[in-house]
Amino acid sequence: MTEVPRFWREIPQRYNLIGNKCRKCDWINFPPRSICKKCNDHDFERFDLKGEGKIITYTIIRAAPLGFEDLVPYAIAIIRLDDGPRITAQIVDCDSSEVDIGKRVKVCFRKIAEDGKAGAISYGYKFKLV
Prior knowledge:
It is built from two helices and eight strands.
């Protein structure tokens, strides 16, 4: 079950692609980090990612983990965002046969899960072909 205070704290991150940009070397981190992956500096500014990019590799899931059986087949891809970072996400709103390396995608926010008896719905990012 999701902890309510943590859930509310994470809302901006759940509904936006928010990273941070190192003020020293301009490296864009996603998700945000406290130490720059490139230069190890600690000075960052918020960076709102545009949410567009291209598929650099992918796989089609045909034997899904528990709770995702109704989605098969579905595509999971590693996407290089135009802003720089790579991100792993599900590709939605298309037949899995349409997914291919080099295809352009953009972010969309969708239901991920329902939590507990209260039915609190968790949303997160996925990507769709453009």
